[in-house]
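Chain particulars:
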Amino acid sequence: MTENTAVLPQQTGSLLPGHPTFVNEIVGTLSVHSQYVLHGNLRDEFLVAGEIMPLHRALWSALRPSGFEALITYDQIDGIGVYPPNDPAALQAVERVLGSNVVGRRPSPERLRLHLAKAVGVPEQPPIEAGGSRSAAPVAPVLRPAARVAVVVDHAARLVRAPGQLSEEERDFFLLCQKLASAAKAHTFPGTRQAPLYNPVLWLVDGERDLPAWFTAGVESIRAVAVGLPTLEHRLERARSLMPKFPPSTQDDPVAKTDPVEVFASRTEGMTLQAMRRITLLARDRDLGADRVADAVRIYKLGVDDNPWRRSSVRDQIIKGEQVITERIKGQGQAVAKTLDILKRAALGLSGAQANTSDSRPRGVLFFAGPTGVGKTELAKQVAELLFGDAQAYLRFDMSEFSAEHAADRLTGAPPGYVGFEAGGELTGAVRRQPFQVVLFDEIEKAHPLLLDKFLQILEDGRLTDGQGVTTYFTECVLIFTSNLGIVRTDPKTRERELLVRPGMPYVELEQKVKGAIRDHFTTELGRPELLNRFGDNIVIFDFIDSRTAGGIFAGQLRNVIRKVHAELGVEVELSPAGLQQLQGMCTADPDNGGRGIGNQLESVLINPLARLLFHEDAQPGDRVVITGVRAGDGTAGATLWATVHRGVR
């Protein structure tokens, strides 16, 4: 090196100020690593000293000051290429290394191995003999490559069919590349870096596991480098450059203090700089001004323009629902009131308003806890009907089906190369199809602990990436978790079940005990206090039902039965006062089992014998059945009705 060769400044703590972190990681370790596996956000645009550029250009801008003369690029479609393109000096450097008539060709795996060996300065492999074994040949010394170059292998994951199931040719290819990493030497070249540096091979993959695991395991000369999503600082810088391209604001509110640049940067958390540019194009196409940048981001994320949360009907439905839900969910005044408060907050977009970045979190989160059969699932249905006009507009997952470690794959889809990868995730797929809905996770305590990591990501970031690399956003969903924690405890030695709370206990005491059990479960048993913190004060405790509430539930379910019989068969069902009193006594004798227990009893002592009666009597539309008494089953025979069938006009 000449005496007047400049050396890159290092007093700032960064080799290349203004460059992305991953670029500095590569440039800063060229003296110790000969190969790099770059994974993550590779297809994005990158801010380099205030300028936007794609990955290859960002790499070139970082390597050129270290004396690199060109990048040798390769992928299976374009073959061997040169970066920068249309640069005679770069082309000459590559031809000095690889020879002429190589650029623009698609080499076989055997030829590609030869090119990689030349680029890093390792002797060529001995040729393969006819029998398949390599011929013995003296090992040539490692020579300095003909030029300072770096090799960029794009779409490297497509070099293999499956990382864990390599063909013989694929295995030999990566085994040689691994040996190249160990055999390569660092060399000095004329340039600005005085220390010996490697001519590196950079493998570009989407995920860190896309190449064979053994290729990088324990190989110190190969370094995995994560290319992360843009930081808030980079998003702010990009937002400042893009905001002038938005159409003029349609509402100029001098009182508003929210900076559109800050809104743009905060709403695009977890998104790429390229996505921010596309959002700007969408805003221009839809004539969404700077005051509607949040709408532009939401449309880009979810793919829909209509926002049910902004409809006046949502407010009207919540106001109306205060009366309707109270009538349908009986005996749970405190739980219903707290749920409605949380929904009002969600409708106004104020969930998590105390946080610095709450825009990406789910619209609302509820954690229903309490005894079984008291209305937790039913209230979730009512929330769906309240918000979206349909009690069935909710997505339910029974967490008892997700107790195995691998069960998380059902929610988000299996990783590449595993069974079920093509099917995608049940949760992520459903939310992408319908981003505005209630998602119910029933009996969350039965889920495998590893599954809680998924919930933590949803609650904190409002998004989840499935096995196919597609991101699903939960920002417009209401998430409801139900649990029976704190009601019954199973003795670990005797396996006997013990009630921790009892009917008739004051609600304040019951709430305290159940919340304490939930806290102990997440902090002590699972060791996951951070998940409990994400639920915050959104834990809603349900009470046991008392005898008066049980009577109301019974009356409502009986009306449903009578209405169903008339709608399906055209038959009217009546109960005499004595028969009604007898039936109610049987169904509400044990209110501890909740509304579900009342329904089970009603099915056993009324619906089953009534169906038997109607079937054998061949009841026709217009007939009327009068029930005067009920006798419970005795173990050998089912329940019996004392009833008379009055024939209608035939």
